């Protein structure tokens, strides 16, 4: 398997965690989001993923995109160390938590959006940071509210085994911390983050541990 | 089953289509996104969905949120008229198409974001529309590129049966048309949209057909 990745891409980071949790070997193919005007925009990468976004997975010639779809595919084709619960309601809960990150937080604070705020909209660095703090804060508050009220929350997002939702939570916290966002208001999120951060699968997926880290 | 919905909510529209495709009866509970300062923000609705976003599903007391998670749950618990393919690669493809809408297009053009552009950022109506045209255009180009290049695309997003990806495509086209976005550059998207629009399940889920339509 080949994973098209960038060390700081939050979505690629999710898939790296999932691959590690399942103990799957893969070759990392770095795609630099800033160099050469953005290597993800080049024809070579568009042939892999026409969305020109990371990550993409090449599984023996089959090309997959979208981090959550990739993780579900890995879970279905390599069922050892499942990343989703066995019951339909549990799966719905874990998917909803993952989608809270992937649909309600990350799309508003990723590189292409922040570049648009400063470029075409001509907003200042200060207003850009205000934007990030606002949307990441809103999203983290949602995640905290879901996790704090539900007895299914355990050491991890769902029970005591890390899964799909944790694969999303940890990179989003990393991203928030890069922007110096105060995480004190999200104690359940941060408790789960600390439990994840202690596991080798999460440590080895961390941006700083990647071959393309700067 | 009770679906918390708003006639023009793109994410609620997805679930209405899925419920109709499966022939499932449900009670629509309207939550008005603009009235009373946004009914989704009230405590009564936050008890249903702490994210204060639509839709939510109440299945005999079990509360579910996030449209894609809800649709997968419906598909798992009511397997008749499946909305996902039987093979893992097909499922990954359909989920990736759905997530292209749900993660890469819709989050940037939904109500809360457009309100923030005009409110806190103080941008003009014109710049707001420029923002919508840019991001919806980028996203539709991604969707078109994925659909046009892949032999799995049929009368619908995946083969000749409507499914999860079509549940996402149609509301996003509706949303784009509300903003007068020129769709001529996305012929595959529009061909599939036309095939969907001919089916009763899609007709009956249309915003104009909802009890809370204005």
UniProtKB/TrEMBL annotation, chains A, B:
UniProtKB keywords: Isomerase, Pyruvate
Superkingdom of the organism of origin: Bacteria
One cellular-component annotation, GO: cytoplasm
Pfam families, A to Z: GST_C_2 (PF13410), GST_N_3 (PF13417)
GST C-terminal domain mapped to chain residues: 87-214
Matching PROSITE patterns: GST_CTER, GST_NTER
Gene Ontology molecular function, alphabetical: glutathione transferase activity; maleylacetoacetate isomerase activity
Alphabetical list of SUPFAM superfamilies matching this protein: GST C-terminal domain-like, Thioredoxin-like
One Gene Ontology term from the biological process aspect of the record: L-phenylalanine catabolic process
Residue ranges of domain GST N-terminal in the record: 1-82
Signal peptide extent: none
Homology family: Belongs to the GST superfamily. Zeta family.
Name of this protein: Maleylpyruvate isomerase
Organism whose genome encodes this protein: Rugamonas rubra
Upper taxonomic lineage: Bacteria, Pseudomonadati, Pseudomonadota, Betaproteobacteria, Burkholderiales
């Amino acid at each position: 398997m080949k994973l098209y990745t960038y060390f700081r891409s939050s979505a690629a980071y999710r898939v790296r965690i999932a691959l590690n949790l399942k103990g799957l070997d893969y070759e990392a193919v770095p795609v630099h989001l800033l160099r050469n005007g953005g290597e993800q925009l080049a024809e070579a990468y568009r042939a892999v993923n026409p969305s020109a976004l990371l990550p993409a997975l090449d599984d023996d010639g089959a090309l997959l995109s979208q981090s959550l779809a990739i993780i579900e595919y890995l879970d279905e084709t390599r069922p050892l160390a499942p990343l989703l619960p066995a019951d339909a309601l549990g799966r719905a809960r874990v998917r909803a938590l993952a989608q809270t990150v992937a649909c309600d937080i990350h799309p508003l604070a990723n590189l292409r959006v922040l570049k648009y705020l400063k470029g075409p909209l001509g907003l200042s660095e200060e207003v850009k940071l205000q934007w990030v703090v606002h949307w990441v804060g809103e999203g983290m508050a949602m995640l905290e509210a879901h996790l704090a009220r539900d007895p299914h929350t355990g050491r991890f997002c769902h029970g005591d085994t890390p899964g799909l939702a944790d694969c999303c939570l940890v990179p989003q916290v990393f991203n928030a911390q890069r922007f110096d966002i105060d995480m004190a208001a999200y104690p359940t999120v941060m408790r789960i983050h600390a439990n994840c951060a202690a596991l080798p699968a999460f440590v080895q997926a961390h941006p700083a541990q990647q071959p393309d880290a700067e």
